[in-house]
Each structure stands twice: as C-alpha cells, then as structure tokens.
Amino acid sequence: MGYRAFVVNKDDDDFTASVQTLEDSDLPEGTVTVAVEWSDLNYKDGLACTPNGRVVTKYPMTLGIDFAGTVVESSDTRYAAGDRVVATGYDLGTGHPGGYAERVRLPGAWLSPTPDGMTSEEAMTLGTAGITAAMSIDAIERNGIGPDAGPVIVSGATGGVGSTAVAMLAARGYTVHASTGKSSEHDFLRELGASEILDREELAAESRRPLERERWAAAVDPVGGTTTTSILRQTKYGGVVALSGLTGGVGVSTNVMPFILRGVSLVGIESVYWPGEDRPRLWARMADDFTGRNLLDLVEARVGLEDVPEVAARILAGGVRGRILVQPT
Ligand SMILES: NC(=O)c1ccc[n+]([C@@H]2O[C@H](COP(=O)([O-])OP(=O)(O)OC[C@H]3O[C@@H](n4cnc5c(N)ncnc54)[C@H](OP(=O)(O)O)[C@@H]3O)[C@@H](O)[C@H]2O)c1
C-alpha cells in the first residue's frame, strides 16, 4: 500500500524537498507500525529542511521529529493494533523516517501511550516543545524552586518551548515573566498566563556588570547566547536556569559571580534521548497542567505536507507564534 511522505534528499550540492508516495516496502526496520494522525513543527524540523541544517544524518530522509497516531501492527508486546501512541525525538526525522508521513515504523521503545483524554492533535500541540518545557520546569522544581521563590522568566516566549512553558508554569501557580521579540503578541502571552512582558532585545543586551539586581528565581531558556548570560546576571540567590536552546546563539559567555556569589545553577535540558521509561510521567504532568484549559489555543496553524517548506522557513526566522501542526493525511 502506498503512503505519502515529506522527503528531503541531498546529493553533493543538490538539495531537494518534496511530497512523495512511498510503498510499505520502503518502511524501515522496526517493531511497531503506526498510522500517523498529527505531527508538528519544531525549530529542529526547520533546520532539517535546509541543506546545511546539520541535523539530518542520512539521506533521503522523511522529516518530522514528532508524531501521534494509532498502532496498525506490532510485534512489541507492549503495543497492539488500535493503541493510541505518541513519539518525540530519538532519531525520528533525522536518522530514521519520521512523522511527516501517513505511516511510520519504529522501535517500540521510542513510543509512549497517548494519555487518556488527550487527542493526537493535542499531543502534537505539545510534542518536543512541550516535553522540553516540562523537563525544564521539572528541573526547576527538583532544585527546590516553587512558586513562592519568585518570578520565573521564559525567553523566546511566543515560540514552541516558550509558549508551552508559560502556560505550564502559570498552571502550577508560578508568576511568569515572558520575553519576546513580537510586540504584537503581548495579549497572547498574557492569556497564557504571563504577568510581565519584557522586550527580547533588552533581555539579550550585553553588560559589563558581573551581576545585576536579583529578579528571577528561575528561568526556562530556549534562546541561549547573550540572553542566557543576561539571565544569569539577574537570577536570584540559589536560582536555577534551565537552558535548552540556541535561537539566540550557541556561545554563552559568563563570569563566575552568579555561580560563586549567588549559588545559581545552570542546568542543561536534553529531550531527544531522555529515557523512554520516564516519558509517560512527563506526558501525565503535561496532561495535568492543561486540565480545564484549551491546549489548542496554542496552535497558530494546521498545515499539510505541501506547506512544510513555507512553515519551516518561518520558524527559522523566529516568526512562529505557539505551535504549528502538520497533518500528513
Ligand atoms: N534541548 C532540547 O532537547 C530541545 C528541544 C526542543 C527545542 N530545543 C531548542 O530550543 C529552541 C526553541 O525551539 P522551538 O521549537 O521552541 O522554536 P521556536 O518555536 O522557533 O521558538 C523560538 C523562539 O525564540 C525566539 N527567537 C527567535 N529568534 C531569536 C533571536 N535571534 N534571538 C532571541 N530569540 C529569538 C522567538 O520568540 P520571541 O519572538 O517570543 O522572542 C522564537 O519564536 C531551539 O534552539 C531548539 O533547537 C531544544
């Protein structure tokens, strides 16, 4: 049976991206075959759509680092036909054909059950972005920072990681300060639960001062670069900065003062190979955080496979608000 997939290929300098019809015989090795209902768009998918994005490890490659759908066939005893499942990360869409396809075959260990009561569309509104935000907040909590410790700053707040983090922090009772470069989206951030909005450029500004006024008990920082440096200078005594991304740059230069005078911790967040055994817990905490709230308010657009190049270019330019969902069927 044929299935549609968004495939990139690179041969020397020749890079192509197109929607193709593949055959079941093209599916890779794996123990579980899934009919994909929804996928999503993350910054990494944007990079994978470019010739020099350095995230795809072999070509041709079906993109899509996340998907949610229903099991069609399984030789893994943990899953049976009809089960609702979700997968994020691992080698999906980079080294193993991913979720921008009507069908995916993969190792069962990469799957988690979709939480009861959560639709595939809702699961992909979270996806890698939501998992990364949940892991960041989890790290902040494990380091003893609760809502009473003071405000938490979220950088890149209208992006995928940022917007899901704002909503989840607010649901947990934190006071949320949000930094954004999109002056048109302040209302969106306030509706998600931010009480104060900062200008992205102001937060990223360089300073000669080793420390500044203590402002935030913690940070969810998917931006990196000078934004991280600036947050470190303004983090309160004993605070935690959970760093997950690089949209503002890969280099972080800092002095030692936040660490040795304020005991600030810089915690790295890596969602791609996070152990599968812990993922159902992360999905359950996200489901809890959004109980009674409309998760789909985070969705900016729903697109088909043909639209992937356009939205990929937009996310790389920092122009996406919230989440973009991709429907392969
Ligand atoms: N470590 C992990 O496991 C992991 C997992 C997921 C994502 N990430 C990383 O986290 C980052 C965000 O991913 P995402 O999928 O949420 O992307 P996204 O939706 O594009 O969000 C990124 C946001 O960063 C802000 N931004 C864009 N350009 C910027 C610049 N030059 N300087 C400062 N801020 C800028 C924008 O928000 P505003 O306009 O609101 O400022 C943008 O919406 C990426 O670097 C991604 O690779 C890492």
Distance separating the two termini: 14 Å
Q: Roughly what fraction of the amino acids lie in strands?
A: 25-35%
With helices defined by DSSP (H or I, 4 residues minimum), what is the helix count? 9
> How does CATH name the architecture of the largest domain?
Alpha-Beta Complex
Low-confidence stretches: none
Q: Kindly state the mean pLDDT as a whole number?
A: 97
H/E series: EEEHEEEEEHEHEHEHEHEHEHEHE
Shape: globular
> Mind describing the biggest β-sheet?
7 strands, mixed
The name of the CATH superfamily of the largest domain reads Medium-chain alcohol dehydrogenases, catalytic domain
Helix content: 25-40%
Secondary-structure-derived class: alpha/beta
Q: Radius of gyration from the CA trace?
A: 20 Å
What is the number of beta strands?
16
- In CATH, what is the class of the largest domain? Alpha Beta
Total number of distinct structural domains:
2
3D structure, described in words:
The protein has 329 residues and is an alpha/beta fold. The chain has 2 domains: 2-114 and 295-326, Medium-chain alcohol dehydrogenases, catalytic domain (Quinone Oxidoreductase, Chain A, domain 1), CATH 3.90.180; 128-268, Rossmann fold (3-Layer(aba) Sandwich). It has helices at 43-48, 120-142, 160-171, 186-192, 200-204, 225-233, 257-260, 279-289, 308-316; strands at residues 2-11, 14-23, 32-41, 61-62, 66-74, 84-88, 103-106, 112-113, 152-154, 176-180, 194-199, 216-221, 235-243, 265-268, 299-303, 323-326. Strand 12, helix 6 (225-233) and strand 13 form a beta-alpha-beta unit. The two termini are 14 Å apart. The chain binds NADP nicotinamide-adenine-dinucleotide phosphate. NADP nicotinamide-adenine-dinucleotide phosphate (NAP) is lined by residues 42-44, 128-129, 132, 156-162, 180-182, 200, 204, 222-223, 227, 244-248, 269-272, 315, 318, 320.
